[in-house]
Design goal:
There is one protein chain. This protein has no helices and 12 strands. It is mainly β. The protein has a domain of 123 residues. The two termini are 17 Å apart.
């Protein structure tokens, strides 16, 4: 069955696969004040990467770090989110042939607006592209990303905002 190549809306409840997760210790950038929450991991026969939200002090950004074959951090963690002054949460991560794709959502600390993001990163975790996940006036949160049949598939929750008359959250889906 071919999946539609457009944004699709489904009312809750809808069961989605859980974000990539595993029983692995939360990685740290270095000794000090780094906090790490909401771990996601992506593995292939060649490599493994972890993503989490955290940071030093009040920061809440998305970090990625390569892991060794023993599951230990390899090298320094790299900040993947930098969309202005916002708090980034709940990363999801997949590996592609030429790098990683990370999804997360952010909360604007001044307006409380929620926005979902999808970023393509090369093997050195340099950003190649960035897409805001949105549909209409809904806020977007909790994105999950999968790679299937050579295409990126992403779903997220559309949370009604003050600018919409919708009462219930909805699931949105896109393919890239």
């Amino acid at each position: 069955m071919a999946m539609p190549r457009k944004t699709t809306r489904c009312l809750l409840p809808l069961l989605l696969p859980l974000a990539g997760c595993a029983h692995v210790s939360a990685p740290t950038v270095a000794t000090g004040e780094m906090r790490a929450h909401e771990l996601s991991i992506a593995v292939s026969p060649q490599t493994a990467w972890a993503a989490w939200h955290g940071g030093a002090g009040e920061e809440a950004a998305i970090y990625l770090q390569q892991l060794t074959s023993a599951g230990e951090p390899a090298g320094a963690a790299i900040k993947a989110s930098s969309e202005g002054r916002a708090f980034a949460y709940e990363p999801d991560l997949v590996l592609t042939e030429d790098g990683q794709v990370a999804a997360w959502y952010q909360k604007n600390p001044f307006s409380n607006e929620l926005s979902g993001w999808l970023a393509g990163l090369d093997v050195a975790v340099n950003r190649k592209w960035l897409v805001r996940l949105e549909k209409g006036e809904d806020w977007s949160r909790n994105p999950v990303v999968r790679l299937a049949e050579g295409r990126l598939r992403v779903a997220w929750i559309g949370q009604p905002s003050a600018a919409t008359s919708a009462l219930d959250p909805a699931i949105w889906y896109r393919e890239f």
